[in-house]
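Structure (tokenized):
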């Protein structure tokens, strides 16, 4: 469901999968950011087939605030599908992304917004991460492997805090796992990317969907999918165009 009755600059996509315990606090934190955001902001929840009470809480939030909207999948499709749905339904010139677990803060969108006028994608790099040793170590290894394939110079593509130009986002051909390659896919469009430090917090509620396959082995197989996409990717610019009515 989209609200087009007001003029907004930024749509924040929030994928949600079984995050009932975090949603009220997330709502409050997003409201705090929106009240003094340099860009007029709305929120689009993507309910990714949650099996707890997340959808009902999302509906209540959206009913009580015209700046909050949602769409809900018929089942769980994963983060890449949720991001694609968000990109497809964003109708502002900027689109942001944050996870529902609040391990990153909506307030740090202000840091990213300070650079977005000069870049096509600005993403966070989590500082002093509050995750387990195994999760942190596997993330470092996975990022090193990805950089070998993409040469995108990004240290933390898994950071769930990003802002991207919507026209660029809508042209990204998404497939499962490609959310880790958003900076590289922007580069394929000759776009400019930047990473900036952001804060990181421990998870207070809900359950992480982390496992070793998702963090390490899965991204390795996705690298080969990216190489195929890079080889086949079509990118062009139009110098002149004539159209008759």
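Design, position by position:
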């Amino acid at each position: 469901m989209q609200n087009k009755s007001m003029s907004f600059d930024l749509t924040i996509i929030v994928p949600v999968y079984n995050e009932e315990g975090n949603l009220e606090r997330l709502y409050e934190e997003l409201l705090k950011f929106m009240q003094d955001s340099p860009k007029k902001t709305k929120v689009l929840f993507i309910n990714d087939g949650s099996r707890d009470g997340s959808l009902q809480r999302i509906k209540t939030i959206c009913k009580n605030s015209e700046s909050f909207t949602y769409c809900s999948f018929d089942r769980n499709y994963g983060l890449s599908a949720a991001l694609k749905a968000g990109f497809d339904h964003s109708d502002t010139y900027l689109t942001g992304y944050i996870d529902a677990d609040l391990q990153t803060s909506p307030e740090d969108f202000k840091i990213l917004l300070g650079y977005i006028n000069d870049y096509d994608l600005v993403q966070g790099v989590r500082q002093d991460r509050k995750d387990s040793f195994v999760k942190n170590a596997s993330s470092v290894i996975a990022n090193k492997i990805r950089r070998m394939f993409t040469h995108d110079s990004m240290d933390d593509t898994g950071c769930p805090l990003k802002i991207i130009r919507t026209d660029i986002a809508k042209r990204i051909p998404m497939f499962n796992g490609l959310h880790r390659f958003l900076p590289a896919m922007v580069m394929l469009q000759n776009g400019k990317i930047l990473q900036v430090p952001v804060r990181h917090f421990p998870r207070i509620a809900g359950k992480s969907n982390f496992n070793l396959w998702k963090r390490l082995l899965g991204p390795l197989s996705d690298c080969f999918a990216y190489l195929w996409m890079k080889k086949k990717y079509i990118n062009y610019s139009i110098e002149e165009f004539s159209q008759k009515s």
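Reviewer-requested clarification: The first helix runs from residue 23 to 35. The longest strand covers residues 10-16.
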